[in-house]
Amino acid sequence: MTESTSPAGQGSSPVRPLRPGDLRTVGPYRLEGRLGEGGMGQVFLGTSPGGRRVAVKLIRPELAGAPRFRERFAREAEAARKVGGFHTAQVVDADPTAQPPWLATAFVPGPTLRHLVDADGPRDPAAVLRLGAGIAEGLAAIHRCGLVHRDLKPGNVIVAEDGPRIIDFGIAHEPGADALTRTGSVIGTYAYMSPEQIRGEALSPAGDVFAFGSVLVFAATGRSPFDATTVPAIVHRVVSEPPRLDGLATPLRELVEACLAKDPARRPRTDEVLARLSVTGPGPATAAPAGASGPAPAVALHALPTQPATPPPGPPGPPTAPRPGTGLSRRTLLLGGTGALAAAVAVPAYLLRDSWQGSAGEQDRTRPVARLEGHPQSLVSLAFSPDGRTLAAAGSAGELWLWDTVTRRTTTRFGGEPPHVNGLAFTPDGRTLVGSCQDGTLRRWDARTRTPMPGLSGFEAYPVPTPYSLAAGPDGAVLAAAGGGTLQLFDLASGRRTRKLDAGEPSGVLFSPDGKAVATASRQRVLLWDVAGGDQPRTFTDDSVEFRFNRVLFSPDGKTIGGAGPGVHLWDRESGRPTATLTSPHRRIEEAAYRPGHTVIAGGGFGLGPGDDVKDGARAATGGTISLWDATTGRVTQTLTADLRQSTAAPLLSALAFSPDGKTLAAAFSPTDNTIQLWQLA
Question: CA-to-CA distance for 165 and 461, rounded, in angstroms?
Fold first, then answer.
């Protein structure tokens, strides 16, 4: 797990040119170029009327539109402006009433610690201690103002010529306050989060101290002390395992061990860390890369207490209520991708059974890393939120489930009691979940608050008004629903139907990546409709097809269209020419999808059952499996095998979804197992 190479900082990457749609002025500042982007918005290099350079952060529209956002943003921006000192990037201006809201900090030239170590390698022990003293001084200034940074990591430390600077005060907040970012996503990078932050508990300066210890390890070794190749493995190590401190010199190791105590009450305060990091001798923290020769400055590192001392005067943080033991708390990171709730949520006793041990590199990648259990019904639809942190599942008993893909825990029934839900779709901003129901309704829920929203116009079809499949357009403006012999398009802003088209017997619907077309699977054909207008679709078919298609596919680049059912058939979208037919031992392909960003297709359906005239070995090889094809060669490159412990019949792959980054594959198997299986893909 690595950080983004374009964090919301200043020196994270060279200044890039403005794009055609970018603003040219924000408040009194003239924008000169793009610096990066992060969880709250985009960051630009700006110039003040007097010629001073600043970093201007523009807040994302979905955050700015959240209830009470601007009030909280104004309060937190004003609190952040109090932070001064030599080792922070000063907040100099903000306008919470602007559209969009923005915040400006002093521009600090220099690489981030992440880029510096990636380019030049780990720092030597003396340089790490100098760096640590500067960061600790910056944290002490933040904490003296009653703030907690919450996202200290190598990408948020700029190594300037005169020492390190802590940046990104767009997320700093007062301990115990109603933080603005709770209306958005969970704040922080998991490899540098404290255990209590991962558990969703109240935060205090002790969480920054934990992150500080991890940052020092990165500076000295080039990795986090909790590094792993998957987020679940990172979370497990942060919460339940000791840090990996191989290669740290003894004085630094003692300091880091104290900072990385699982119990926040046992960590030193930042003023204690600073008091015990006494640095003498010239030179910035960048002076000596690992292995450099020459005399090192004298460094005195005092022993740190293992019990907390009396807190100093000043604004106190909230109690953190340390928890004994190593398991994840039942206070979850609820809806981590679409809004972490501040209140504690009761989690039912539906168990997660992990099949992985150790890091992902040690796994058999053909086996699932987890089973999500407890569904009382067959599951027919899965959908990932746009950031991949929430997995929605629906089934025949009228229950919707939201799984946090990091903690792998779920909430109870979601948003009322809908009937059988056939399809699910998140809007691209992640704020709304839409479901197509067997009674002909198209229902919407606020994905953050779990409350119903006004529905869309009813689905009109004769004789059975049942929408089976849903898809949201990539621009978030249009929703497509297919079923009952029709394809119907809805305007998501007004909730009204805009088009109703005769689509045969559609059983799947999907927008093209550019959003200009929508495709349906219908009998032995795939139909491609122009979203802008026109009642006559383009038709893609293959004379060899004997059975109906169940799903439609688009390659990530939009150049290939496909249909799944009797195998997977692919056509060139422009010419209509067949390009490949993908086969597997499955009797029929019920679910199939392209892996985002890859030329890989995952698909499966019915395994071979007891009535099939095949050898037992073949039957076992197809039951509960998913084939991964290389679409360029047409060959199955890998077969994923589900962990089905209760199934006694030939299992059916009833739902399948990739996370938006393509790293996680979720699949539901029905009707006898009723679990969701998760695979991590290389």
Answer: 62
| Cα–Cα distance, 33 to 18 (Å, whole number) | 5
- H or E element, residue 563: strand 560-565
**119 three-state secondary structure:** helix
Pick from 415, 465, 480: which is nearest to 443 by CA? 415
Token pair of 485 as six digits: 């012999």
Is residue 151 annotated as a catalytic residue, yes or no? Answer: yes
465 with 440: CB under 8 angstroms?
Answer: yes
Residue tagged 């799903």 (tokens): 551
Helix, strand, coil % (nearest 5) of the chain?
15, 30, 50
Both tokens assigned to 358:
């150790």
Q: In the beta sheet, which residues pair with residue 592?
A: 603
Distance CA 549, CA 605 (A): 12
How high is the mean pLDDT in each 10-residue block of the chain (682 residues)? Answer: 38 73 92 80 89 88 75 77 74 89 88 90 91 92 85 90 78 43 46 87 90 96 86 81 88 92 94 72 35 34 35 35 30 25 24 32 71 82 92 78 82 55 90 85 83 81 67 94 88 91 86 95 89 88 75 95 91 94 84 95 71 40 79 92 70 90 91 84 88
**Residue 32 structure tokens:** 């000169």
Q: For strand 41-47 and strand 53-59, is the pairing parallel, antiparallel, or unpaired? A: antiparallel
**Cα Rg, the chain, nearest whole Å:** 27
From 151, 227, 387, 673, the catalytic residue: 151
Alpha-carbon distance values, 24 to 33, 105, 346, 647 (Å): 9, 18, 48, 60
Asked if 267 contacts 249 with a C-beta cutoff of 8 angstroms, the reply is no
E-strand stretches of 419-558: 421-426, 432-437, 442-446, 451-453, 469-472, 478-483, 486-491, 497-502, 506-511, 517-522, 525-530, 538-541, 551-554
3-state secondary structure 314-379: CCCCCCCCCCCCCCCCCCCCCCCCCCCCCCCCCCCCCCEEECCCCCHHHCCCCCCCEEECCCCCCE
16 near 34, Cβ under 8 Å?
Answer: yes
The continuous run of DSSP H or E covering 271 comes out as helix 270-276
Give which of 158, 192, 150, 266 is closest to 3, Cα–Cα. 192
Quick check: 124 and 201 in contact, CB under 8 A?
no
Taking alpha carbons only, the member of 553, 607, 557, 623 closest to residue 582 is: 553
Q: What is the pTM of this model?
A: 0.50
